[in-house]
Amino acid sequence: MDPTHVAVVPLLVPLFAAVATLLLRPYPTLQRGASAIGGVGYLVAVAALVRAVTADADGYLVYALAGWDAPVGIVLVADALSAFMLTIAAIVGVAALLYSLAYVDAEDQRLSYHSLFHFVLLGVTGAFLTGDLFNLFVWFEVMLMASYVLVVFYSGPEHTRAALHYTVLNLLGGALMLLSIGGLYATTGTLNMADMAHRLANAAEYGIDPAPVLGLSALLFAVFALKAGIVPFQFWVPDSYRAAPVPVTAVLAGVVKKVGIYAIIRVYFTVLSGAALDVSLPFVAGDSVLAYFGPVLLVMAAGSIILGGIGAVNQPDLDGLLAYSSIGQVGFIALSLAVAASAPFGSEVMLVGIAAALVYSLNHGLAKGALFLSVGVIRRGVGSVEFADLGGLSERDPVFAGGFFVGALALIGIPPLSGFFGKFLVFDTAVRAEAWLALGLALVGAVLTIAYFSRAWNRAFWGEPVAFDPQPRLTLVVVVLGVGLLLVGIGFQPIADAAQRASEAAVSRSDYIDAVLEVGR
Amino acid sequence: MSVSFVLAGVLGLLFALGTFLLLRRDVVRVVWGVTIIAQATNVYLVTMGGFAGSVPVLAGHGGHGGGHVAVQDPLVQALVLTAIVIGFGTTAFALVLTYRVYQEHGTIDLEGLAESSERPETGGER
Amino acid sequence: MTTDRQPTVIARTVTRVVVPFILLTALALLFQGHNLPGGGFIAGVLTCTAFALVYIIYGRESLRTLLGIAADGPGVLGGITGLYARLFAVGLLVAATGGVVSMALGYPFLTQAVLYLSDLPVVHALTAVPGVGTLELASAFVFDLGVYAVVVGGLLSVLSVVGRE
Description:
The structure holds three protein chains of three kinds.
Chain A: H1 9-23, H2 28-55, E1 61-64, E2 75-78, H3 80-103, H4 106-129, H5 133-151, H6 157-188, H7 193-201, H8 203-206, H9 211-228, H10 237-243, H11 246-271, E3 279-281, E4 284-286, H12 289-314, H13 318-342, H14 348-382, H15 393-396, H16 398-412, H17 418-432, H18 436-461, H19 472-490, H20 492-507, H21 509-517
Antiparallel strand pairs in A: 1-2, 3-4
Chain B: H1 2-22, H2 27-48, H3 74-105, H4 110-118
Chain C: H1 9-32, H2 40-58, H3 61-67, H4 79-104, E1 114-116, H5 121-124, E2 136-138, H6 140-164
Antiparallel strand pairs in C: 1-2
């Protein structure tokens, strides 16, 4: 087989795994086996792609689907940024999948769980790999449609209500995204991201008036922020995260949110940044879309950090606390992106800012994955996740408590865990940019993180021990993720290099354009 | 030019209607509102090709043997087809979900749903 | 359907006459889909309208007895719904496999090809028959067939599950 196919294999594996799990419904054991093989196969396929991208001289793998070259055809583009995000998706996704084999009821697994799970992975992978704006919409919808069903999976009263909010909001988001894509197409005459970047950078040559791009990109921005759950688009997060099965919540928080972050980085930093705009609004001045969205994103990040942090401190149950915490943590990612966007294009601050967002995403994906999966252990072991019913779990199961503790410490940012480097890079970005407001916000957020996790630890793991039924298989996954956090922290240098390559790929617009359009020339 | 004005007017009307329905308390009306907005988006997408774009994708490939024949932009048609298929699936799902909400809560009134969330519930097995 | 009002004779007769035409149109759309307006999705939707008509007019048991399938078992995917769900899965498999075959032949995923049967001497004689033009065999048809099965299977399982409520 042609080695260039490596770019499409991460899409095909979940697709065929989904088909196989649908066809194998009469044979539950085989079905679970196929799903697990699909999950591990996905991990292998992503690893192969990451290796190929790293080994490639230019760092770009462009795959023209059906042999139609860009800009007319639909292409998949794998670069260091996509590879980094796919790595997060693969690790968290596979851990959650293996966890759900032991967690979700056998009958529920048989009906639809596995195929839906693989469809979510398929949509996520497609969104990370596509080089076409409309296909980004299509992959979003693939991912969302499967996630709607997974949110309403238990279909009790609170699940249907949460899913209703989630569905209606995202349907509306989909319509807005389509509006914006249609407008961008009318403005630039192309949907291929590289071609669009090329045309916007040479607007006069193509007779394009870039002024509408600002408004259209604002619509798109709202949609991406909705996916990422940044304030003021966060209101669906807590209910949906409570409603979905625990492993799905781990994927929603760890991976699906990151798709919104990835889309912001890819579309704004790589594609739209070339459009020369004369922004003259109050407090905002600059000559590109980024200059406009930097302050907007800063305000949204501030809202997320504060609202998420205070909300998390107030929650009566562990899954609510973690849901609000992920609003706050996405605030950190948005914060570093905001500082990066306000910096001059291609400057050191911008590179460090994007790298900080990526490292923080990786850390949040792994740590939140581990924490949400421990919610499942507690729900199984104690029967409730209300703080009022919990206590003394560290005495009952020290190994499990250790896994949770590592996850919490990683989010707080204690060395040598990966979270330390994530937080450190965010602070570093703010200091380099001399953005003292952002630095202050990050400090407030860090204090709030410590506050709510010490509360969770005090209420659930210390105090009067409650009856606890150990869940060794589920605990194993939590502990593996915890060890992963530790390993990422100890051997941080390769991760830092990968994040740096990814952030360079995000801002090297002309390389991206050359790599994709070269196929067509 | 007059065609664009008519289309713009129709689009405005459709979006207004969709927004109006979206703000109702009845869940079924909300789903209708979303559907109408999705359909309005499709109409809007069609108008984004052809006459509205400054740079058609296949400039000059419209005619068969001499003479420049005006063609509709085929790309937007393909986009709309895809969007319709996706909208079709999501609308079906949203309606079934509404039915399920009614089964679980005995109401499709949004305020009724909010009230039922305030009552302490045992909750399903999760 | 437990309404006490039966559909009228007109409705029953019209259904009987119209359904074959709908199915025929659906097939025509399916076969021309690879290079003319039509295709798997629209053909599938059209097929489903025919089935929906039969469901509504003759009751939802009619189709099951017509196809000779056991009554709905327990669970969501018993009986005919299970059949529809399998059709959905098989369609997905066919469409996806159709894309992968091109990879095995060394082309990118989803690459399609057309074979003009009328170039073959045996078939070429047929093109002389009035009403028969060039005959072609497009690999895209396999994909369309998969989409058709997905749409029919998916819509009918929605119809039968919701109809059962």
